[in-house]
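Predict structure. Chain length: 113.
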Amino acid sequence: MNKLRLVVNNKLNQKENFFVRKELQTILNLYAQKVSCGDWKDYSLSINKKEISFDIYHRASEVPIFKISKNLNPKNKIEKFYVLDKNSNVIKQSENLENLINKTKWEKLRLVK
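Prediction complete.
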């Protein structure tokens, strides 16, 4: 019994399984701006082993128009965060979520009805 050891807040063994607080706050700030403009209506969160995504809808009954995703096991740094369109095409990638959101021109990404 004397060989047991308690490890608290071991940063080496912690694995990110979700958006951290700052990342989620950045996404929700963008979402609030677009809702106030009337462009976006609803959102959902999708979680699987490979990625976590914040799905954005124009109407709740449709497929998501955009997905802001975080890759949990990126092959290189630039593939950590990315934005996908309705057809799952990558619009933009970045290693930093704030840069990704700020450099994406959301006004040009309008819905075509």
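Summary: Residues 43-113 form one domain.
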